[in-house]
What does this fold into?
Amino acid sequence: MSTDPLKLLNELSLHRLSLSTRRNFLKTCGLSLGAMALTSMLSGCDNSNKTVSSGIDARDITNPLTPKAPHFAAKAKSVIYLHMAGAPSQFELFDYKPLLTKLHGQPCPPSLLQGKKFAFIRGTPLMLGAQSQFDRYGQSGTWLSDRIPYFTQVVDEVSFLRAVHTDQFNHAPAQLLMHTGSAQPGRPSIGSWATYGLGSENYNLPGFVVLTSGGVQPDAGKQIWGSGFLPSVYQGVQCRSKGDPVLYLSNPEGITRNIRRQAINAINEVNELTFEEFGDNETVSRIGQYEMAFRMQMSVPEVMNIKDEPDYIHEMYGTQVGKESFANNALLARKLVEKGVRFVQLFDWGWDSHGVDKFSALEVGMINKCRETDRAIAALLMDLKQRGLLEETLVVWGGEFGRTPMQENRNGVSQQYTGRDHHPDAFTMWMAGGGIKKGFSHGTTDEIGYEGISGKQSVYDIQATILNQLGFDHEAFTYNFQGRDFRLTDVQGTVIKDIIA
Amino acid sequence: MNQLIEVIGRFHVLILHLPIGIIVLSVAYEWLHYCKWKVIPKNIRTLTYGIGALSAYLASISGYILGLSEGYSSEINNHMWAGIITTVLITLVWYQSEKNSKFMHWYALALIGAISVTGHLGGTLTHGAGFLSPEDPSESLEEPPQFQISDINQAMAYHDLVQPILKSKCTRCHGSSKKKGKLRLDTREYIMAGGKSKLNLLDSNVEKNDLIRRLELPIHDDEHMPPKGKLQMTDSERILLKWWIKKGAPLDAQMSSLQPSDTLLSLIQQMINTTHNTTAPSHQNTIPAPLPDVQLPIPSPRAIAQLQSMNVLVLPAGQESPFLEVNFINVDTIHPKHWQALELISTHIVRLQLTHKSIVDSDLSKINKMQNLMYLRIDHTRITDRGIAHLNDLINLNVININNTSVSNKGIQTLSQLPALQTIYAYQSNVTTDSISTKMKIETGGYMIPFNPNDTIRISTN
It folds into this structure.
């Protein structure tokens, strides 16, 4: 957006002139007629509910983020999705398996390896017991490990899903599947679907905000908060807790807010003409995005500023102003939800505990990751609760898959540090608030946590449940693209009724 | 050859519509002619009876074959005899028509009677007895299994656990009345005998057991049991069945003698507990939030448009719901005009958010008229105990948020009279008490996680 606004003004007047010259008319007339015929033939490539053609007041649709009602009365107004990118080990956190501890160090029986594919394990690996101590916590008496001491204080707010499974065992496709319902790129993310269905409650803020921490972007890249084939206005807006909250949002030096306003007016006029000419919804999105960006110049710095939070809140979350951290993002998530943002997506990178080095070791790096997130997650749940927000905010925690009960032996060689390989068949996720049962566990895994034996839930079931809490029937929530209706859950998914309060 | 005959049987459900249609047509001809409304030549009427008779024979034969191949019992007899009578009757009527009988119109009426009875009996066979009057729940309702168990260890594996599951999920179609695929699952012997395919369904090699295979197939698979649309088996029920079969499917064995693992026992315990209080009906795909149980006309579109033009968010609580959710989040200052418009839709409002808005105590008397209000946020406002005292008619109010107000313990005493109120959020208010009545939760918050220097330590990863 650093283009010189004066140039744009010139462009506008040139554009106006070109519309009124006879030569220009004669030059383009043949082409335009052809294009008109073509657009009417190619309409299948665009949004099906397009009733707009040139001449209709564009204002009705210039705000694609206008709030909308979901299918039915919803228990959750917002979602905070905490994604631990890299896939944390369920064995060191939630899935207590005494038998696995007993079997520690023994070679894995061949029956468990038959027909299985692993990312790195080769030959016969050794069984690996939990590298942490477990005890029971809360009224619910849930088994939890000593890695997450603060989480034990809020365990009674949470419903665990202990037998989630996916069908991808590499990070990028598994993250895509988790967030877009497809292991291939190109589908809209769950936050985009939510914003497409609900719009943005706060006129001055986007409906879908993304915050990342851990120093590295998730493996699947920005497409996991992309809008796919939905209009691009529904994609997640990535904000930063350090430096400019949104990149390229602030005005360049010497440009006042007034000049910016004039520039945007000029750009919008050009875009409105383009829309009248071609009737493409992306043009409307573009107008909406310029307008939203203009409003965000004022609203975002305010909401993204944690300086004014009282000290006890900083102490509770473990936040440090001006730093990029998961704790800062957790506090921001609360602030955003408080301001009416529908979907806040947090990605924290660094949970891929293979044990190939200290960083990825269960006994070193993972402990650090727990310390970086545990306090903030507990604080987030407590803070949402006392503000009355947890009632209507669904909090989801999880990775993209689980980890093996066997120790990783990359290339068949035993490693200096302990780690676990990727495991898609059984892992733990949890949900809290937004109409979810408190202090509940759903599903069980077998005695070494290798596979789910009851309450097995797929990634699609998680998505169906999130949509249900927001008031959507995932089977009826569709978008017509290239001639067919698409769903987040494709042809699968059932709402996990057992965990709904 | 057998398969071909079976296919002919299946065609019964198609062919049976021919005699019904033709008989109705022939009777119509007969009476139109009799009443002299239309002249229909005799040869046409006779021909119609003739074709009707022919189709009745086809329907009877295919029906008989179908009855043999599908697992029906005596319930089929009435339909069969009614069908035979109808076929004989139409043959006779055709014969009489050839003979120019004078009583043709009466014969025709008898035909209508016969085909109606036959059709009704047949329809009952395919759709079940409760189809015509579905409000009578005694026949059609599928219920989760009822267990009568006090101590799992002493329970009989088959009688107390397996049989109730099969009774709830299987024997409606594979039992004494209906025997789909010639399979009965109501006693152990029948299960062992299997159905048409004659497979032993108690084969303790569960990898090859057809019963287990079909239970474990994904629901979209054609061979999955119970079929899509019927009450499905839960995971625990499936696990228990598989385990029992694996143990050799003993008829008279106590659970304790079969040495179940602790995981299994806790699963069974959970299964018994949950079937006692099943809440969500299993045919429902979605679970909406509850709304007041009252009928309302649609809310005034003018009032909604007026509020929207003043930046108020007004949305139905779900598409096509008459209830409304109202949010002032984008409003800078509240005007009397806002309240006037709100009054026009006051009974429709179920959720109202006035966080951070300039409302005063007297405004709460207007809110008190919103009799269906379930969720109220008046946090971060200047309201006091005097304002709260207005809220005494909100019989549907479930949650109220008075965070960051000067409301005190005295103020929320009024709220204890509200019958549906469950949660009061009173963080950073003057409320100090944790409870005013047992069913009400007061959240005063103020959570702290004290600083712990150890938390900031990171283990070096270099």
Observations:
- The radius of gyration of chain A is 25 Å.
- Chain A has 13 helices and 17 strands.
- Residues 78-245+304-477 of chain A form a domain with the Alkaline Phosphatase, subunit A fold (CATH 3.40.720).
- Residues 74 and 471 of chain A are 4 Å apart (CA to CA).
